[in-house]
Design goal:
Blueprint: H1 3-12, H2 15-27, E1 38-40, E2 44-46, E3 60-62, E4 65-73, E5 76-87, H3 94-123, H4 125-133, H5 143-148, E6 159-165, H6 186-189, E7 198-200, H7 207-210, H8 217-225, H9 230-239, E8 246-247, H10 248-258, E9 270-271, H11 273-307, H12 309-326, H13 331-338, H14 342-347
Parallel strand pairs: 5-6, 6-7
Antiparallel strand pairs: 1-4, 2-3, 4-5, 8-9
Helix pairs in contact: 1-10, 8-10, 11-12, 12-13
Length: about 350
């Protein structure tokens, strides 16, 4: 499993983060889902076997995260199954993938109900036998119930699957099964059930909507959203004090997803992301300066043998400046490092 998959999977196991994602998706950010009411489930989805005897094949899939919610609705216990699929890259068949997951979960619920009835029947075998002999209709099993194992009064738990994209690029994959079809005739499609995915993608969330997140997921998505825009990222870090006291798990996700190579204490509880980013950029500048100076001086020395010592040194500085510009250093930084007027650096751009 890739590093990105590992860290994101561990991250969404946090019930506060998990609840936050679904509160945003379903309730517009209102804290309706209580993290304390979420319970971990086996993420293995096993479908009903097909074939006979030794030829039977079982369909098996693994979700990234699956929890069930217990709550009270009108005085009665209400249950809901919530699943998250983390994506560090855009998946162009996500609608099919999620549809399979949900279908397997519903099939598992049917099989669980059927098994429950079979177990109960074994305990009441004598009672059922007697009931059939006496033609007691109150415990008679309908033919349809016997065939499916799912009784008339049985009910399924709703399954909501969310795709959480850990990537700064806009989601451009199909959002539904219909979008994947080449057939567009509405007369045909009216007989084909559609399936749409539920998506949270940083690039497509407005800044004001980011504020609807309450956990560290807000900072994770915010950072990813602007990870390729240095100016916007600087603004974000300066104006959001929560980045100065971010939980370590969130910082690890940010660092891994954006390949930032940040240096911070991974065993601690909190991270000052502003300082970590500042240290990273300082290190980049130092490495860029050393590499640029070395490359520039080497090339400059070669040309300097022909053009003279003074011209060679000027060429070395010019190449150094260009190398540092490529690495993202500002004109002011380069002028200060090379001890040259900023106008001279501008002329070399």
């Amino acid at each position: 499993m890739a590093a990105k998959d590992i860290v994101t999977k561990d991250y969404i196991k946090d019930t506060e983060v998990f609840a936050d994602a679904f509160n945003y998706l379903i309730f517009g950010g209102n804290p309706v889902i209580d993290p304390l009411k979420l319970h971990e489930m086996d993420t293995t989805e096993i479908g009903m076997p097909y074939g006979e005897g030794k030829t039977r094949v079982t369909v098996q899939k693994f979700r990234d995260g699956l929890k069930y919610l217990t709550a009270m609705e009108d005085g009665n216990a209400a249950y809901l199954l919530l699943g998250i699929e983390n994506q560090s890259e855009i998946h162009y068949a996500m609608a099919v993938k999620n549809m399979v997951y949900d279908a397997l979960q519903y099939a598992a619920q049917v099989e669980k109900a059927a098994k429950s009835h079979r177990d109960a029947a074994k305990k009441k075998k004598q009672e059922i036998t007697e009931a059939v002999r006496n033609e007691k209709s109150d415990i008679r099993i309908e033919a349809g119930e016997y065939l499916s194992g799912f009784y008339k009064g049985d009910r399924l738990l709703p399954v909501v699957t969310l795709v959480l994209l850990f990537n700064p690029e806009p989601w451009d994959a199909p959002m539904s099964i219909y979008e994947m079809f080449s057939v567009k005739d509405p007369r045909i499609l009216s007989f084909v059930p559609d399936y749409r995915i539920n998506l949270i993608a940083p690039a497509q969330i407005k800044e004001e909507d980011m504020e609807k997140f309450r956990s560290s997921l807000r900072e994770v998505l915010f950072y990813i959203k602007y990870s390729k825009d240095r100016e916007q990222l600087n603004r974000l870090l300066e104006n959001n004090p929560r980045f100065r006291n971010l939980d370590t798990e969130a910082a690890i996700v940010i660092d891994t997803i954006t390949n930032s190579e940040l240096e911070f204490d991974r065993k601690g509880k909190r991270v000052d992301m502003c300082q970590a980013v500042a240290d990273m950029r300082k290190k980049e500048r130092q490495e860029g300066r050393q590499e640029g100076i070395q490359e520039g001086r080497q090339e400059g020395r070669q040309e300097g043998r022909q053009e003279g010592r003074q011209e060679g040194r000027q060429e070395a500085d010019r190449r150094t400046a260009r190398n540092m510009l490529k690495r993202g250093n500002s004109l002011e930084e380069i002028a200060e490092i090379l001890e040259l007027p900023i106008e001279t650096i501008k002329a070399w751009e």
